[in-house]
Amino acid sequence: MEFVGTSAQGILKHKNKDERKISELKRKLAETEINLKAQQEKGSMLEKCIKDKDDLIKTLQLSIDLVSQTKEMTIQKLQIQMMDLQSSLDLSRIAIKDNNGGSCAPAHDKVVKERKELNVENGKFRELNNQIVEIEKILKSKEAEIARLEFKIDESKLKIVKLEGAVKAKDEKIVKMEEILSEYNGTEYNGTEYNKDDDEFVFLGFSKVPSIKLVTLPNFEPFASAFEDIPSAGRGWMVIQRRIDGSFDDVINSKLKPGCGDLGGEFWLGLEKLHKMTTNRRMELYIQLVDFDNVSAYARYDHFVIGAAKEDYKLLCLGKYSGNAGDAFSSHINQAFDGFNPFNFGPSKWWGTMNCNLNGIYQKSKVELRTSDGIWWGNWNLGKRISLKSCKMLIRPMPSQV
């Protein structure tokens, strides 16, 4: 286990990791911006290409209109010529008929000549039609090419929209990572950020809650916890439990494993975290007690160990006792945590209830409890169950383990 409060290595590790993530995100963002710029340039080129194609279409259309006009004029001219030739042919036939057997060779030659001229004009007409057909084919081909280019432009625009969305998402991720990094840069907070009433942070004449710090465990998600210094017991104590007003009374059993409550108020760290910490390193336990006469006492144990979930988080060890409250807790060794057991319908939320219970129902005044379901420490009151005003449990690595 590593406390960030006593060592900055955990924070620096997370900070360096997040800085690397931010650098990687910035690199990817730069690449995305380059790709976006390339797509935009490509889009500009496509738009220019479309403009050029539009100009070509206009030119071709003008050519087609001109050819069509020329075609109509040529057709009219050919029709007139054909009519003239036909008239000449008819006149020649009449002249031949009037001559009645006279020499018809000149007239015949004229007819042949006019037919040849007519065939030439018909050939020109067919050639003109063929040219118009070719131009129409070219125009259709250009229209198909323009449609293909427009489709590519639509695809490019879609890619640009997606790239812009990716850039925005990466920008948001960078902002979020920078916020996380800034939180790691200043993990200590004044306790008043968690509770408006500073007096609630004062217990047994000891110091106020000085800070909320990040705790890291091997193979476990980092979590925040309150840390305090106790003048008579040293520095760096982590609060694992606090009872002051009864808000913990309604906590359901499923919340006991992960932990619950307010870091500045009634609070329970969580059984799984306690198991991880107390089995990873040797931990000492400090219990602070205050009664409704404002008399304080404490109990201290030098080897606090909680079992695993499969053992119902049994209290495995407490070590050596010291203090002035009396050793009411050692008799609970090897007791399972009642509130975690699904077959337990009692509200104790504690390791049995023989000689003490710090997670029972909170009483707002001094009373002698009729049952064990309360907040009491038997050895402090000659074995009687006298309700306590407040209590707090704190742990830290043994000094030789720090």
From TrEMBL:
Keywords from the UniProt entry: Coiled coil
Coiled coil: 15-42, 125-166
Occurrences of domain Fibrinogen C-terminal (ranges): 189-399
SMART domains named among the record's database cross-references: FBG
Keyword Ligase appears in the UniProt entry: no
Entry-linked Pfam families: Fibrinogen_C (PF00147)
Gene Ontology cellular component annotations, sorted alphabetically: extracellular space
Protein name in the entry: Uncharacterized protein, isoform B
Organism of origin: Drosophila simulans (Fruit fly)
Name of the gene: Dsim\GD14849
